[in-house]
Amino acid sequence: MPLLPADPFSLIGLALVAVTVAMLVASDWPKAYLLGASTIVLFALQFFDQAILGNPLGLRELALTPSGFLAGEWWTPISYAFLHGGLMHIIGNLFILLTAGPALEDSVGPTWFLGIYAAGALVAAGAGVGLAYVDVGQTAVTLPSTLTPMVGSSGAIFAVLTAFAVRHPREKLPLPFYIILWLPAMVVLLAFLAMNIGYMFLDTSVAWYGHFGGFLAGLAIASLPIDFETEATDSVDLEGLAPLAEDPKAQQALERLREVDEDQADVAEVWLDEFAENTQCPVCSKPLQRDGLDVRCPSSHDVRRPSGADGS
């Protein structure tokens, strides 16, 4: 039974994963951005292992294989989520992580966000290992074998996307489809689920079962009867919103927000939705979006400005 990877590059990669996990738990850095940065660093190490040393799958011993896990590779249900099978694979996952991730983290708080991400990765890993040892005979869907390597944060990303869509179904998220379409989060989730159903019946390397595992994990946690907002934030920054209220409807929504008690987060969200729909980013003029108990620009511009500024 191996205690650690024998390959030196895989050992270095595992050390980086361990450092990332420690920082995620102990530091106050935004979890979504820290995960994104770590994923990029590990992908660069993968690329070096592939391009320089000629290994077909970089950091091979960090990938999750059902047989390897049962043989004692205890680290793989975690480390596999930091690897990716190619450039488009990592770009797609980072795209969702860095758009839905920060918004979900602001909404539920860093601890719950990290729990959702980890649960998605672990449930996806369990789905891959479990299905590899289930004898279902001849099927129309593509199932993993005991030697199929599994890499990627897609299960974790599906959990994040699902949790965000369940909690904020009308919030806009980007959907890349030739051009980037900004659509309600629930529509984006349903689009990805539809694509995943298609992958079930195609002979591809896409681990559709891991995606569904992440979906179920995110759905389960987001549906818990817990007031996530109390960890994330407990008040609306009315002073910061005031300079944005140029439209009469936005001004009316702001007045209603002044009347809302701090323990009425659900009521505040309703009026923040109304406020966001009637305000624009002072930089790009796009309609703002509610982000927990705040508003944000869909293009990530800083929407705060001093009172009396003209935005020029």
Short key terms for the protein model shown above:
two-stranded antiparallel ribbon; 312 residues; disordered C terminus; two-stranded antiparallel sheet; elongated; mainly alpha; Rhomboid-like fold; 2 domains
Please outline what is shown here.
The protein has helices at residues 8-26, 31-51, 66-70, 76-79, 87-108, 110-132, 154-167, 185-200, 208-222, 229-232, 238-241, 248-258, 265-277, and strands at residues 172-177, 179-184, 289-290, 295-296. It is mostly helical.
Overall description:
The protein contains 13 helices and four strands. The chain is mostly helical. The protein starts with 7 loop residues before the first helix and ends in a 16-residue tail after the last strand. The model is unreliable at 230-234 and 306-312 (pLDDT under 50).
